[in-house]
Design goal:
This protein is of the alpha/beta class and 264 residues long. 28% of the residues lie in helices and 23% in strands. The protein is built from 6 helices and 11 strands. The strands form 2 sheets. A 9-stranded mixed beta sheet has the order 9-8-7-10-6-1-4-5-11, with helices on both faces. The protein has a two-stranded antiparallel sheet with strand order 2-3.
């Protein structure tokens, strides 16, 4: 079974500054693997243990993002890839998912794949859109918010999908994609032995020139139809106000407060 896992390097702290273009200033900030992606990687490793095969981790980012692939190796991933090119910079959700899908397609042409697994969302973006957007671009079936793998074999997989108030059971044939929630498993700890064993393991870099699409307008800032008007760190405001009254009185107070703050 050939499994591809999308992972991302995110800031370890919420105290990250933002530049004039609305981009996070990551220089000098410690980074870690996106916590949600650890559940995706653990899911892949358990499927590999059951069916055999290979687990490959792929990330998109600057050269230092290779460290997140090293983390994946420490958990048990077999291969690693990084999509890195200045032409990918400034990508929104659409451009990011398109770039990743291009990279996944190149890897798939080399090795084939059965399943792509993504974390539910990233802690620095919180959109939960990249995984499904990758699947739509690749034109493969996908299931988001997977909370449990019920059954799997060499041809298909059956999963539980968390819909909030209900649980759906979904079955699809490979190739396909799932995004997983934290309920799907408990990720293993990185292994120091694997860190030593994989310290010289190759991480393949894919640039714009390696992709199938040679139109620069589909990548990075050029390929991003959405632009962020303003990004700012959250204020550490712990001031609290307590109101008393019945429902009608409280709703009127809340309305007036929001109106005064020009939220509505």
């Amino acid at each position: 079974m050939e499994i591809l896992v999308c992972v991302k390097q995110v800031p370890e702290t919420k105290d990250v500054e933002v530049d004039e273009n609305g981009n996070l200033i990551r220089d000098g900030v410690d980074s870690i693997m996106n916590p949600h992606d650890m559940y995706a990687l653990e899911t892949a490793l358990r499927l590999k243990a059951e069916h055999g095969g290979t687990v490959s981790a792929i990330t998109m980012g600057p050269p230092q993002s290779k460290e997140v692939i090293r983390e994946a190796y420490m958990m048990g991933a077999d291969k690693g890839y990084i999509l890195s090119d200045i032409k990918f910079a400034g990508a929104d959700v659409l451009a990011t998912s398109y770039t990743l899908s291009q990279g996944l397609e190149v890897i798939g042409l080399k090795n084939g794949y059965d399943l792509i697994i993504c974390g539910m969302e990233s802690t620095d973006g919180d959109t939960a859109q990249v995984g499904p957007a990758i699947a739509e671009t690749l034109k493969i079936p996908h299931v988001a918010y997977v909370s449990s793998i019920k059954e799997s074999n060499g041809e298909k997989i059956i999963v539980e999908k968390d819909m909030g108030e209900t649980i759906e059971i979904v079955e699809f044939s490979y190739p396909g994609l799932i995004t997983v929630t934290k309920e799907v498993n408990q990720p293993r700890l990185p292994s120091y032995r694997l860190k030593l064993d994989t310290r010289d393991r190759k991480i393949e870099t894919l640039t714009f020139a390696d992709l199938l699409d040679d139109d620069e307008n589909n990548f990075g800032l050029k390929g991003s139809p959405t632009q962020v008007e303003k990004v700012f760190p959250p204020d550490d405001n712990i001031e609290k106000v307590m109101w008393t009254g019945n429902g009608e009185e409280l709703s009127e107070k809340l309305f007036n407060e929001l109106k005064e703050l020009k939220v509505i």
